[in-house]
User: Fold Ferrochelatase from Enterovirga aerilata.
Amino acid sequence: MSAPTVTSAQSSRSPSSDRPAGHPLVRSGRIGVLLMNLGTPEATTYWPMRRYLKEFLSDRRVIETPRLIWWPLLNGIILSTRPSRKGRDYDTIWNKELDEGPLKTITRSQAQQLAAVLGETAGERIVVDWSMRYGFPRTKDRIEALLGEGCDRILLVPLYPQYCAATSATACDQAFRALMDMRWQPAVRVAPPYHDDPVYIEAVVSSMKAELAKLAFEPEVILVSFHGIPEEYLQKGDPYYCHCHKTWRLMREAFGWPEERFRMSFQSRFGPDEWLKPYTDETVKEFAASGVKRMAIVAPGFSADCLETLEELNGENRHYFEEGGGTDFAYLPCLNDSPEGMRVIRHVVERELSGWI
Ligand SMILES: C=CC1=C(C)c2cc3[nH]c(cc4nc(cc5[nH]c(cc1n2)c(C)c5CCC(=O)O)C(CCC(=O)O)=C4C)c(C)c3C=C
Ligand SMILES: [Fe+2]
Ligand SMILES: [Fe+2]
Assistant:
């Protein structure tokens, strides 16, 4: 397990002069910032993969199918076959040096870099940490660590530009569950989604332009791919589709390309239900079938590269395009811990800390 705490200082203040004899000393006066992402398996072998998928796919925010129907499916066919198959996919993108998924490596680096920049202005007052909704580091453990560091105010930052109950809300649920049995709860704020924030749009577009400038070809079409969700979640009121659509529209306007050359799609369909359309894999196959030879793909909904981008987009979908007759395929990386990516995280965090610092 990793040791994730990233602190910009070790000391804290306590209201000791107001404390009667015998009352326990609780450190206070500092502000915690918790970057929260999705999570990744601890290893690519069967049992760690199974534990990760079981935790993920048992989340009612992710799978809303009635338990009576879902449990036999999950514990029967899904958890006996998917761990090995997906473990092989994770093997292709695994960070061998640190023996972990790239999502973890990148999220840790984002937290470390954020701690460094906030430390320059706020000194010892701010403590930055990071946690995962599934697997490790656990949100509960990191919130307890922040309290131990003297944080009586915590800013929760779900690292999802577009809000979705299956990602942003479940990350917050996990944090709120940790607070439920605390006597002295910290004051808590939640950073809102940033799908239409000009700083985010500008960062995504300038990062894309820089990546495109490195290519030996100009794509005929750019596909903006977002992680999908079941269609039904949209009908039930989830704003995710609208957030994705707005991000795509603002990116296209900033990019200045017509709709036919700047397309949008949804990836990672799971199970037999209808998911948000158009599907990424079908769109890529259609491009190739209609004679497109050069394309680029980008996934602005992911704040860090992961299985869904490195393997599914840059592996699987590249293969579909080339197999269908395409000649040049470019995957444009996520913002990650790049200067543009850190500019976005810092901007969101500093804005949401206003009044606290
Ligand atoms: C089955 C339902 C799923 C929903 C709904 C869903 C929504 C959703 N997920 C992300 C971001 C990521 N998902 C990742 C992997 C992943 N997603 C699902 C299922 C759903 N996701 C599964 C089962 C998996 C694991 C891999 C697999 O078995 O296919 C990841 C990658 C994590 C990594 O370790 O690299 C991310 C990130 C979003 C943004 C989203 C809805 C908006
Ligand atoms: Fe997912
Ligand atoms: Fe996938």
Notes: Residues 67-91 form the longest helix (25 residues). Residues 1-14 have pLDDT under 50 and may be disordered. The chain is about 45% helix and 15% strand. The pocket of L6N33NVT (ligand 1) is lined by residues 38, 40, 53, 56-57, 62-63, 82, 86, 101, 103, 160, 164, 166-167, 227, 229, 240, 268, 270, 301-302, 306-308 (CB under 6 Å).
